[in-house]
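Hi everyone, sorry if this is the wrong subforum. Our group has a chain we'd like a structural model of before ordering constructs, and none of us has done structure prediction before. Sequence below.
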Amino acid sequence: MIEKNGSLKIRDKLELIQNNNQSLRESVFETLRNAIVEGRLAPGERLTELQLAEELGVSRTPVREAIRKLELEGLARMLPRRGAFVTPMSLQDLVDFMEIRRVLEGLAAELAVRNATDEDIRRMEMNNSFFEEAAIANDEAGIIDYDIAFHEVLYNASGNKKLIAQINSIREQTKRIRMEYVQNVDDKCPLIGEHRRIIEGIVQRDAAKAFKAASDHIKSTELDMIKVLGSDQ
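Answer:
Right subforum, don't worry. Here is the predicted structure as tokens:
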């Protein structure tokens, strides 16, 4: 997080995430992108090229290019004579994202009815079992981890790579409020039934049921997220 005087707090110092499959430019972009969606660079924070370059141990060029890409994704915005800032997420942004995700998630479940293997179903059931345990125990980190794992199996079971890419892009956009959402939802047990209904639709090879269950699940999540985001605005 960047303080008002523009300096990065030491405890939140950014570290360059890099692997052998990425160029330096890609690594800088992914590092800044992750910092934004995880809330380490908060909405409204200024993105100063020189400062970020020093923190990451790179030149200003890949930082400048990363900020431009973040702007294209809607995660940053450039203000005349003021520079670049992390874009806050508005209620309307959230509604728009989740409206699209409801349809895409329903389609993923519908395709999974046709394409899911027994192993896919077993993995969905396993991850949901862990998710249920986390929800009952109010284990917030576990809820997030196993929810992600459950949905990733569902998406892969659809067999449509383009669809998976679109859903993941939207999920990244809303990831910024995911932890806050989980922390502020008092009764997490209803989420258990929502996952189960998706699995039931796939097991029964009922495309309409699977589509509705997945779409309803995202709508339920959206309503809770709106409560959380609305309280901050």
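For your construct planning: Residues 1-11 have pLDDT under 50 and may be disordered. Residues 10-86 form a domain with the Arc Repressor Mutant, subunit A fold (CATH 1.10.10.10).
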